[in-house]
Fold this sequence. Notes:
single chain, mainly alpha, 2 domains
Amino acid sequence: xxxxxxxxxxxxxxxxxxxxxxxxxxxxxxxxxxxxxxxxxxxxxxxxxxxxxxxxxxxxxxxxxxxxxxxxxxxxxxxxxxxxxxxxxxxxxxxxxxxxxxxxxxxxxxxxxxxxxxxxxxxxxxxxxxxxxxxxxxxxxxxxxxxxxxxxxxxxxxxxxxxxxxxxxxxxxxxxxxxxxxxxxxxxxxxxxxxxxxxxxxxxxxxxxxxxxxxxxxxxxxxxxxxxxxxxxxxxxxxxxxxxxxxxxxxxxxxxxxxxxxxxxxxxxxxxxxxxxxxxxxxxxxxxxxxxxxxxxxxxxxxxxxxxxxxxxxxxxxxxxxxxxxxxxxxxxxxxxxxxxxxxxxxxxxxxxxxxxxxxxxxxxxxxxxxxxxxxxxxxxxxxxxxxxxxxxxxxxxxxxxxxxxxxxxxxxxxxxxxxxxxxxxxxxxxxxxxxxxxxxxxxxxxxxxxxxxxxxxxxxxxxxxxxxxxxxxxxxxxxxxxxxxxxxxxxxxxxxxxxxxxxxxxxxxxx
Length: 512
């Protein structure tokens, strides 16, 4: 559901890598919800899915394409709801599999559906909404498969069509969900991309996007739960509010244990919150079987989790399985880098060198994880074992173990500057996540003071975290200073994502 635009593809950095799989899977995740909520708009009856279309859609949501197709055989073939569900089914298969051989056929099918919807669209909110949504799906496919110019054009058309749906049918809440999502992501992009988006007529707005998403999330509609999930994940990622997202997904997991999408979301959120044991438990309890769409990225996440625990052989097997099943170009360099780490930390120097060379042989560097891995390959700067192990322990939620590991780090006059900066930054992260905020502030500040304009992410991230800490304490001026400091670094591995978060935080500080 999220296509940021052709020029914005390099912005799919750490924030996008965290949301990349989620937003692709949510591309078609229309949830039906009967929650009783006080509406904020006057409710007007609008046509939605038929019972058959809704049942098929439920199977798409579970990532079970074959049962969905079987149900759609009994649905009116040219009805707007049927066309939309079919498109959701096929775009989900394409974007999850990353199978380039299916791209042309699916884009051709989308063009046919759009022609049918043009004939049925006038006077029908669902038909016009489906038309704009399918154009967004098409833009997603085009961007993922390197047809960026066409993707940017279809994004523009989808955006403008969704605006028209909102104007023509102001009480049709699903359009608010999709328009709000696009407004938020376009509005949160760095300034360096804004000029092109404005030329395309895509004036994003974080505030307008959140407003529209909240309307869709707080009113009963076919897509309410999808809007709730998107909103919760955005707040977790950008505004440090993880509790709502975790609570929502955990409840869904209990209600729908056969839903692979929900399992994916739970694993992803638990991993993000450094709950390694819980994330691995969710991974092992996920629904499996021949009816489910293969989801190779789950194995890549599991490989990370096992790496955090020091289970190097198991991590190797999980990433090897990911690469065997995955057909896409993203995450290949990151997977090779994680294979390198598992072999290197496991003491297999020959295999580690083989995996190090593999980083340079394939995949793209659009995602920041892949860019980071490729930079490691090109820089040829040896990693420090204690710092690397501590980083993995922190990522896994093993904070005291990480501090113990860091005590084994012994810098000398010949220690590279990168390592000299990483050590206090890792200490700051461990203390921060343990709730020892005074110690965290001390080491974050030490990192910033030592760094100058060194092209590493430790100082910018330290400044960003200091901004968050002072913002939480109500010290707005100090928080503003550190957010501006985070923006001031000219280049580092995670500049786009760091700058985006700092800008959103500064905007939040300006609100009354």
